[in-house]
Specification:
Layout (H helix, E strand, L loop, with lengths): L9 H6 L2 E6 L2 E6 L14 H17 L5 E12 L15 E10 L3 E9 L5 E13 L16
Antiparallel strand pairs: 1-2, 2-4, 3-6, 4-5, 5-6
Length: 150
Amino acid sequence: MSLAFGAHIPFVEHLGFTLERFAGGESELHFVPRPEHLNSFAVTHGGACMTLLDVAMATAARSVQPELGVVTIEMKTSFMRPARLADDAPPGAVLRAQGRLLHRTASMAFTEATLYDDAGRACAHATGTFKYVRRPQASSGAPEPSLATD
């Protein structure tokens, strides 16, 4: 079990995202899409792109108070160009998402993130609102995070 994101997140681990920056309201994640992450046009599936942007925003929000978790309240994504690695991309080329915390209150975080291809071109941009939640206790019967106001 990896705790690179401060929590065990099986779906993120399955996709293979790596956390490269997690500080001061900013985050950076890297992603190397595999064939199963592509759509019928042989570019990264929009759902994988949205997940990358969601996690980039969430980690930016959490970077200012890592002991808390966050849950997505809403997210808007705009796609600008296909997110893909060039056929002649050098070894180590990645899709990169940069997240930023724009504003926070005691219980909410307002964020944005941009997804870049290996040439540094913006492919997608998202904004999102997250609710800070206390992490459940580390027991097998722990309750799920509640969206109810404390």
